[in-house]
Amino acid sequence: MNTNPVEISPAQIAETIQLLRDAGRQECILLWLGRREQGIQRIVDVYKPIQEADKDYFVIPRQGMAVLMERLRTQGLYVVSQVHTHPGRAFHSHADDKWAIVRHTGALSIVLPFFAESTTVEHFLQEAAVFQLDSRNRWNEVASENVPDQLRVTP
Ligand SMILES: [Zn+2]
Q1: In whole angstroms, what is the distance from residue 41 CA to residue 143 CA?
Q2: Per-residue pLDDT tens for 77-100?
Q3: Please, which residues have CB less than 5 A from ligand 1, an ion?
Q4: Alpha helices of 1-155 — where are they, by DSSP H?
Q5: How far is the centre of ligand 1, averaged over its atoms, from the C-alpha of 147 (Å)?
Q6: Residue 46 above 80 pLDDT?
Q7: Domain boundaries, the chain
Q8: Distance 116 CA to ligand 1 centre (A)
Q9: CA 10 – ligand 1 centroid, Å
Q10: Domain 6-149, what architecture?
């Protein structure tokens, strides 16, 4: 798929992990907000939307979506990727397919296992399961050897 790669800094990966861990033993969703730059999708904000969550689900209520949309509009950003945790292994559930916030072709949805308890900045890309939305609106897992083509951690 011809999509510009997502670029995120190590500090933003660290912030992502910290926010996911702070949620404790419940699922947590974060949104990577950014903008298009020449040849890349640059993450500028790691954003935790207002959400209701328990150990095996999350929901962004209508108010959370409204606050998000206002932020995107006023800051000129879009939701580049979403990241969420699972209590067990990382996969894309039917609910994840159906309720994904990111909907543009080539969008990434990243799932981290075990509430991100063992995730580190260095191993983020290895631990993460990365899914990409195709032009037929289906989520496909990106093979680990192809993840660096889609998602880069750069200072
Ligand atoms: Zn999920």
Answers
A1: 20
A2: 999 999 999 999 999 999 999 999
A3: 93, 96
A4: 10-22, 62-75, 94-99, 124-127, 147-150
A5: 19
A6: yes
A7: 6-149
A8: 13
A9: 24
A10: 3-Layer(aba) Sandwich (3.40)
